[in-house]
Amino acid sequence: MEVKIGVQYAPRELVVDSAQSADEVHKTVAEALEGNGLLRLSDKTGRTVIIPVGKIAYVEIAEQTQRTVGFTVS
């Protein structure tokens, strides 16, 4: 699951390749926004990203798409 997080005053978005499902990521984001003030997400390699929810501009949750290589004939 690819999660893109826009952070206020940051020129680039954070991209986390999470092993969690879309529903699990959505629940984690919702709980962070409602309560503790920090969003914690881990990627597939074990790296953890911690973001203060007051600085989050947006969160985009998307399935990863396979890119095709070469030419295709329709």
TrEMBL record:
<dbReference type="GO" id="GO:0005524">
    <property type="term" value="F:ATP binding"/>
</dbReference>
<dbReference type="Pfam" id="PF11305">
    <property type="entry name" value="DUF3107"/>
</dbReference>
<keyword id="KW-0067">ATP-binding</keyword>
<keyword id="KW-0547">Nucleotide-binding</keyword>
<protein>
    <submittedName>
        <fullName>ATP-binding protein</fullName>
    </submittedName>
</protein>
<dbReference type="InterPro" id="IPR021456">
    <property type="entry name" value="DUF3107"/>
</dbReference>
